[in-house]
Amino acid sequence: MGRMSMGLGVGFITYVVPVYVAEITPKESRGSFSFANQLLVTSGFAITYAVGTVASWRTLALLAIIPGIVQLIGLFFIPESPRWLANAGRVKEFRAALQYLRGKDADISAEEEEIQASVDDMNNGPKARMVDIFQRKYAYALTVGLGLMFLQQLGGNSGVAYYGSSIIEKSGFPINIGTIVMSLIQIPISAVGVALMDISGRRALLMVSAGGMGISAFLVGLSFVLQGLNLFKKVTPILTVISITGHIGSFAIGMGGIPWIIMSEIFPMSVKALAGTLVTLVNWSSSWMVTYSFNFMMQWSPAATFFIFATGSAATVAFTWKLVPETKGRTLEEIQASMTTLR
């Protein structure tokens, strides 16, 4: 029951937080603000990994109560999304929230008009149903959203994140040292991602991230091949740890957060809840499949397992280059209008 409630909580928050952050931030800094969420998630993972080397899982579970309570209290002090308020017809609160978020001296008239016009267009149409998200006009956005979420997992991050210690142990490297290095590297790498998000754009970071994951996964597979051949016995454990660290770092700089950011940007408000639910379901279902099958794959062939992950990362680079749009510097309304144009 504890794991089930945690799963429900994580499932909700991984969708709601990127959408909320995207809706409250100005277009010039939306990417950095949204990716800051991934930086903090990564920091939490890193702290958990580090503490987990000296504490039991029960202690970790009890310590996790603290940030949960802090977050729950903090939610009473943040403003509601202006776009949600506008959609709910609470015009006075919508304007007050937008003014509060932009600053008391900021001119919000243009942004207010754009949001209100988008909401009016949506409300003039019929209420969206689950079947509506499969209409042709949403096909492009749905393809990008579902594709990125599936490919995010096909690169093997869930397997590496949940079984990183086992991989390091299997390579012959000291497990505590390897786990701490593997976890702490994520924080500075994610910070770089925050800095680059609104400079390089989403597409470039996604391709760099997926490419780095692919190269790292290939090197892990190669190290297991060499280990199986009894070659370079002193080098292969080090190569494994460096490559696993590179895989996790590459994920942190782009693939960890950007698919969630893009998902929060591309769907119109009329179908955002339905499409977001489907996209989140695909992401966590794919994560479950990778996590569940990882041990069986490693027993079958550690090298082949990581060569498969490398192939998945290469597919992500190709998918991003061919289909994923650049959303940097555009308002949500501009992005969504372009995504729903029949292609």
UniProtKB/TrEMBL annotation:
PROSITE patterns: MFS (PS50850)
Cellular component terms per the entry's GO annotation: plasma membrane
Domain of life: Eukaryota
Subcellular location, record wording: Cell membrane
Transmembrane segments: 6-23, 35-54, 60-78, 138-155, 175-197, 204-226, 238-262, 274-294, 300-321
Topology relative to the membrane: Multi-pass membrane protein
Major facilitator superfamily (MFS) profile domain boundaries: 1-328
Keywords: Cell membrane, Membrane, Sugar transport, Transmembrane, Transmembrane helix, Transport
Single GO MF descriptor: sugar transmembrane transporter activity
Family: Belongs to the major facilitator superfamily. Sugar transporter (TC 2.A.1.1) family.
Protein name: Major facilitator superfamily (MFS) profile domain-containing protein
Biological source species: Linum tenue
